[in-house]
Amino acid sequence: MTLVALVGAALIFNFLNGLHDSANIVATVISSRAMGGRTALILTAAAEFSGPFVLGVAVATTIGQGLVVSDSLTTSALLAAVLGGIVWNLITWLAGIPSSSSHALVGGLVGAVTVEAGWSALEPRGLLLVLVSLFLTPLIGLAAGYCVTRLIFRLAANASPRINRFFQRAQIVTAIAL
């Protein structure tokens, strides 16, 4: 019965992950009129679905195998982790607080396994790798976004209005890549 609840909770978590995060992916292509809403959502959903098949699942493998000792991972701990992620996503979504579903799931997994099996159930190297990645990724994204924006402003300073079409196409590629 716990396995059925886990599968149901995982489906709910994935739905909420899409609800929570998908607007960030399609907002610019829709608001700039590079694509219509329906087309943007369908294209983004197809890209999100095909991403693991095309790009691989290295991040999921690290979180699934390198974060906690696999012997200490029980169905009830996984269920608690996913339920924690669901609750956190709902709270932050309803309160309008920006939050990462990945952060919520990692926090839920670490918390549930620690409560169930103790601190020794955590893989220190894997935990450090995940925590450093979760901390540095937004900072690297912010710095890269700033640099790319500055570069684009300089390159497009004297461009003709036709450059808008190029940027609309670039937004479509970016939405697919995210």
Task: Describe the secondary-structure layout.
Layout (H helix, E strand, L loop, with lengths): L1 H30 L5 H19 L2 H9 L8 H21 L5 H17 L6 H32 L7 H15 L1
Tell me about this structure:
- The chain is mainly alpha-helical.
- The chain has one domain (2-177).
- Helices cover 80% and strands 0% of the residues.
- It contains seven helices and no strands.
- It has helices spanning 2-31, 37-55, 58-66, 75-95, 101-117, 124-155, 163-177.
- Helix 1 (2-31) packs parallel to helix 4 (75-95).
- The longest helix is centred in the C-terminal third of the chain and has 32 residues, at 124-155.
- The mean pLDDT is 86.
List keywords for this structure.
mainly alpha
Mean pLDDT: 86
Based on helices, strands and strand pairing, what is the structural class? Answer: mainly alpha
Number of domains: 1
Please tally the helical runs, counting DSSP H or I stretches of 4 or more residues: 7
Q: What percentage of residues falls in helices of 4 or more residues? A: over 70%
N-to-C span: 36 Å
Total DSSP E strands: 0
Largest sheet: none
Basic shape: elongated
| H-E string | HHHHHHH
Report the portion of residues in β strands: under 5%
Rg, alpha carbons: 19 Å
Unreliably modeled segments: none
